[in-house]
Design brief:
Elements (H helix, E strand, L loop, with lengths): L7 E4 L14 H12 L3 E4 L9 H7 L4 E4 L4 E4 L4 E5 L4 H15 L3 E6 L6 E3 L13 E2 L3 H4 L4 E7 L5 H12 L3 E7 L2 E6 L4 H12 L6 E5 L5 H6 L2 E4 L5 H6 L2 E2 L7 H11 L1
Length: 268
């Protein structure tokens, strides 16, 4: 076996490491274990906040650092402790939201509260994807702004995710960041925040450089991470915007795309 060429393997979760049933295949688990045995660290870099990520990390036996909340949270899984946490300025977010709605009409809203136990609030009309992730419905808009937030989620009744993302960026691009993180998931984030922000902080703690990192992802919110890492691998199911900037495209998340690449690198 040749020396593994990277010291850090960064993987997104949904659509990348996870299959559609939120499981991680044995083949992918084995490939990641082989990469770590060869001297690399594996780091999860996800748009999910910590409360929606912790059960997956526990299932993987993951005890290292994870980057959650689109880079807002650096979380130590082994110690169940937040190392860093960046919140969204609620006054600025409210202004951005009003400007977007003035441009495209009313939006359905959800929000992720800050902290290890931060709840995800779901407003009227927000379409929740099927799955086990917990959320708290709300009716009073004031409740949305009553505690620190890491992000807002927005949905439009007729615009596609791409159309909503473009319209929101064009309207409030100088106030906040807008990212598309998955089907039906368009988010308002603090300006300048990205997965690359959190990944660079975590890598510094691990003593690893961007030039020593390979990253895997599937959506436009992974573009900054690909820009930071030495090598970006888009899944076969990836969004066209990410595929356009990737160094290579592998098989889909359902077809063990991460394992395909890691096995090739491990074999030299």
């Amino acid at each position: 076996m040749s020396a593994f060429p990277y010291r850090l393997v960064a993987t997104d979760l949904d659509g990348t490491l996870l299959r559609s049933d939120e499981s991680v295949s044995d083949r992918t688990r084995d490939a990641l274990a082989a990469a770590t045995a060869a001297g690399a660290a594996h780091i999860v870099v996800t748009g999910r906040a910590v409360p929606w990520t912790r059960h997956i990390l526990d299932d993987l036996g993951y005890e290292g650092i994870a980057v959650c909340g689109q880079g807002a949270q650096v979380y130590h899984a082994g110690e169940h402790r937040l190392l860093t946490s960046l919140t969204l300025d609620r006054q600025l977010a409210g202004l951005a939201l009003s400007k977007i709605e003035a441009e495209v009409g009313p939006l359905a809203l959800a929000a992720s509260r800050d902290g290890l136990e931060g709840e995800v609030l779901m407003g009227p009309g927000y379409l929740v994807q099927e799955g086990p992730l917990p959320y708290v419905p709300y009716e009073d808009p004031a409740e949305l702004w009553s505690a620190p937030l890491t992000k807002l989620y927005i949905q439009h009744p007729t615009l596609t995710d791409d159309e909503l993302t473009r319209a929101a960026r064009a309207t409030v691009g100088g106030l906040v960041d807008i990212v598309m993180a998955g089907p039906g998931i368009v988010e308002i984030l603090p300006l300048g925040l990205s997965k690359a922000t959190g990944l660079s902080l975590a890598a510094r703690r691990l003593g690893v450089k961007a030039a020593e990192t390979i990253a895997f992802g599937d959506m436009p919110n992974d573009i900054p991470m690909f820009g930071w890492a030495a090598h970006g691998v888009a899944m076969g199911n990836a969004h066209a915007e990410l595929r356009a900037v990737a160094d290579e495209v592998t098989a889909s998340n359902e077809e063990d795309g991460i394992a395909v690449v890691l096995e090739r690198l491990l074999a030299g």
